[in-house]
Write a structure and sequence with these properties.
The protein has 72 residues and is mostly helical. It has one domain. It is built from four helices and no strands.
Amino acid sequence: MAKQVKKKELGKGIRALLANVEVESPEKQMETVKELTHTVAMIPLEQIEVNPFQPRKEFDPDALEELARSLR
Protein backbone atom coordinates (compact mmCIF):
# COMPACT_ATOMS: atom_id res chain seq x y z
CA MET A 1 0.00 0.00 0.00
CA ALA A 2 2.78 2.43 0.86
CA LYS A 3 4.40 1.82 -2.52
CA GLN A 4 1.18 2.83 -4.28
CA VAL A 5 1.02 6.10 -2.34
CA LYS A 6 4.64 6.85 -3.17
CA LYS A 7 4.07 6.25 -6.88
CA LYS A 8 1.07 8.59 -6.89
CA GLU A 9 3.16 11.33 -5.28
CA LEU A 10 6.16 10.99 -7.57
CA GLY A 11 6.31 13.56 -10.35
CA LYS A 12 4.05 16.03 -8.54
CA GLY A 13 6.79 18.19 -7.07
CA ILE A 14 8.34 18.60 -3.67
CA ARG A 15 5.10 19.68 -1.98
CA ALA A 16 3.52 16.29 -2.70
CA LEU A 17 6.42 14.56 -0.97
CA LEU A 18 6.54 17.02 1.94
CA ALA A 19 2.81 17.56 2.40
CA ASN A 20 3.00 17.11 6.17
CA VAL A 21 5.84 19.59 6.67
CA GLU A 22 4.71 22.90 8.14
CA VAL A 23 6.15 26.01 6.52
CA GLU A 24 6.37 29.22 8.51
CA SER A 25 4.85 32.29 6.95
CA PRO A 26 7.30 35.00 5.83
CA GLU A 27 6.04 37.18 8.69
CA LYS A 28 6.80 34.45 11.24
CA GLN A 29 10.22 33.92 9.68
CA MET A 30 10.98 37.65 10.02
CA GLU A 31 9.91 37.58 13.68
CA THR A 32 12.33 34.72 14.29
CA VAL A 33 15.16 36.56 12.52
CA LYS A 34 14.49 39.72 14.53
CA GLU A 35 14.50 37.76 17.79
CA LEU A 36 17.80 36.08 16.95
CA THR A 37 19.55 39.22 15.71
CA HIS A 38 18.57 41.33 18.71
CA THR A 39 20.23 38.98 21.15
CA VAL A 40 23.36 40.32 22.80
CA ALA A 41 25.65 38.29 25.01
CA MET A 42 27.76 40.15 27.52
CA ILE A 43 30.95 38.33 28.46
CA PRO A 44 34.07 39.42 30.33
CA LEU A 45 36.96 40.47 28.08
CA GLU A 46 39.13 37.88 29.82
CA GLN A 47 37.05 35.14 28.17
CA ILE A 48 37.90 36.33 24.66
CA GLU A 49 40.78 34.40 23.13
CA VAL A 50 42.91 35.44 20.18
CA ASN A 51 42.14 33.44 17.04
CA PRO A 52 45.45 31.79 16.07
CA PHE A 53 44.27 31.67 12.43
CA GLN A 54 43.61 35.41 12.21
CA PRO A 55 45.67 36.58 9.20
CA ARG A 56 45.78 40.22 10.35
CA LYS A 57 48.48 40.43 12.99
CA GLU A 58 50.13 43.80 12.38
CA PHE A 59 48.40 47.08 11.62
CA ASP A 60 49.83 50.23 10.08
CA PRO A 61 48.65 53.04 12.43
CA ASP A 62 48.48 55.59 9.59
CA ALA A 63 46.43 53.30 7.37
CA LEU A 64 44.14 52.50 10.29
CA GLU A 65 43.62 56.20 11.01
CA GLU A 66 42.87 56.85 7.33
CA LEU A 67 40.31 54.05 7.36
CA ALA A 68 38.69 55.48 10.51
CA ARG A 69 38.43 58.93 8.88
CA SER A 70 36.86 57.45 5.75
CA LEU A 71 34.14 55.79 7.84
CA ARG A 72 33.10 58.96 9.68
